[in-house]
Task: inverse folding
């Protein structure tokens, strides 16, 4: 075991290999408040990558209804339970969210899956995990739209309590893909060294020619994002649509494009990027990269279960209406601040939120041109002002991809068209 620094948990932790980081890292922000569970992302991935025999149960991208749904079923409850058993009562955070990039959310004092690995699993195991049963992989969309209701009972509607900050009857959609983690548990557990992380973009891949189907990656990944294919006897996982990220898609014109699941998102809740990395594994200062801004400046997007220890590169803007304790367990101690900022966005955040899904190209930089004041109101006792600013997105080559405004322009179709109404 080596000692590595994990900035998401604010401390050093054990990991089977010495730390090594890519030059740039594939990362994404999902805004849960906007997901409508249309499953367009899920189907875009399925029809692109996993349409063959033996891949029927493979959903590299999935959208589950929390808290009851999950693919495989109960994946997060099960790993949280194992961690609690390995270190009873200690899965806690200390300190406060801060401006320090090596410790932005405080310090996680409990055990990660790499530190609890020999407490419940055999001595030879490198990661604490479990192998889901076939039944748990059966139903990718189980418990869709089932809310937690009165007294915490499933589907028992509470007729009161639909006001923020917490609804009494609640659920939310959690869209998930592989997090292309900085400390991938799948890679750490593979006895064949068949899993690797690309130095150019941090995408985590399985070398199919090296894999022998031991399923150690399936057991180890706390997010359960590697999947075993029975007819080929090797494991497969999300490849982050790497030909698109490399700019090799026929539509891309040589410029990096976002993945298929991002591009298909009807709810406009997904944004993907490539963030610059420092040699110590923290994100290099890149103030006007929209992902850098949302994660490190506005701090409105938070990692999914940072306490697992893999340093996932998927970040979520938490849903506003869900009980905070549940969200804090899922996204860590930054939840209150993130929801506060999202609920009362300042001028810059409002502009950056307009960048979601206006294009399939990866945005590397944005610029804001100030516009006139267009709205003023008092919202839950707070003064809110809106300006019709223009936000401009630039690609890797420095060229403008698009520009858009805070107020969506209205186009009046001339009546001469046959389908005018
Ligand atoms: S989410 Fe799982 S499969 Fe993906 S890189 Fe992390 S540990 Fe590996
Ligand atoms: S396409 Fe977007 S809105 Fe639809 S389910 Fe997927 S993430 Fe949610």
Result:
């Amino acid at each position: 075991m080596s000692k590595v620094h994990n900035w998401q948990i604010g401390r050093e932790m054990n990991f089977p290999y010495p730390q090594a980081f890519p030059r740039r890292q594939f990362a994404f922000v999902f805004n849960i408040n906007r997901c409508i569970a249309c499953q367009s992302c899920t189907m875009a991935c399925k029809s692109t990558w996993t349409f063959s025999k033996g891949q029927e149960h493979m959903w590299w991208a999935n959208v589950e209804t929390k808290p009851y749904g999950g693919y495989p079923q109960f994946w997060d409850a099960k790993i949280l339970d194992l961690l609690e058993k390995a270190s009873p009562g200690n899965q806690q955070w200390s300190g406060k969210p801060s401006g320090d990039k090596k410790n932005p959310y405080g310090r996680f004092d409990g055990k990660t899956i790499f530190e609890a690995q020999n407490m419940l699993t055999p001595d030879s195991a490198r990661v604490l995990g479990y192998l889901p049963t076939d039944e748990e992989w059966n139903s990718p969309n189980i418990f869709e739209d089932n809310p937690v209701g009165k007294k915490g009972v499933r589907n028992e509607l509470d007729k009161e309590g639909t006001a923020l900050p917490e609804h009494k009857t609640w659920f939310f959609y959690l869209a998930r893909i592989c997090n292309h983690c900085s400390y991938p548990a799948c890679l750490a557990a593979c006895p064949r060294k068949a899993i690797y992380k690309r130095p150019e973009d941090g995408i985590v891949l399985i070398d199919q020619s090296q894999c022998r189907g031991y399923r150690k990656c399936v057991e180890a990944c706390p997010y359960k994002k590697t999947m075993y294919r029975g007819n080929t006897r090797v494991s497969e996982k999300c490849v982050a649509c790497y030909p698109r990220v490399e700019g090799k898609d026929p539509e891309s014109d040589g410029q990096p494009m976002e993945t298929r699941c991002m591009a298909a998102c009807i709810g406009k809740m997904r944004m993907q990027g490539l963030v610059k990395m420092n040699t110590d594994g923290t994100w290099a200062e890149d103030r006007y990269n929209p992902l850098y801004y949302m994660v490190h400046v506005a701090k409105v997007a938070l990692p999914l279960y940072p306490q697992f220890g893999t340093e996932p590169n998927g970040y979520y803007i938490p849903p506003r209406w869900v009980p905070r304790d549940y969200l804090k367990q899922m996204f860590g101690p930054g939840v209150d601040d993130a929801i506060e900022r999202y609920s009362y966005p300042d001028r810059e955040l409002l502009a950056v939120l307009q960048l979601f899904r206006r294009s399939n190209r990866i945005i590397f930089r944005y610029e804001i041109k100030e516009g006139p004041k267009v709205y003023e109101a008092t919202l839950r006792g707070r003064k809110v002002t809106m300006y019709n600013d223009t936000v401009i997105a630039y690609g890797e080559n420095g060229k403008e991809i698009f520009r858009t405004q805070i107020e969506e322009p209205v186009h009046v179709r001339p009546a001469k068209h046959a389908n005018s109404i």
